[in-house]
Amino acid sequence: MMSDIDKADIIAGRLRQEPYRLLNNDCITKSVRLKRECRALGIPVKVVVCIGLARARWFGRWLTIPVIHGWGEVGGHRIETSRPLGSSGIWGIVPVDIRPVISIRF
Known about the structure:
2 helices; 106 residues; four-stranded antiparallel sheet; single chain
């Protein structure tokens, strides 16, 4: 039998494959969708939204910049929904490498 984390990760894997669009299909939107789909299956999920720090490549230089990011959390386990795991986004930012500074769970 699959655990809640495994079930949520399957749903998140499908969401990761959808194209990332900053205004209508971003990490926060996908995390809320993860929560809705998991709730329908009886899996308790929290959405975490944070202001964090990430390394970004801008004009050939690596900088640490503030970013807003969101993910799902099942049983204290972080589940990324924004992009396929390990892939980078704009300016070379990899979502799993974002270090939260301030976070809100709902």
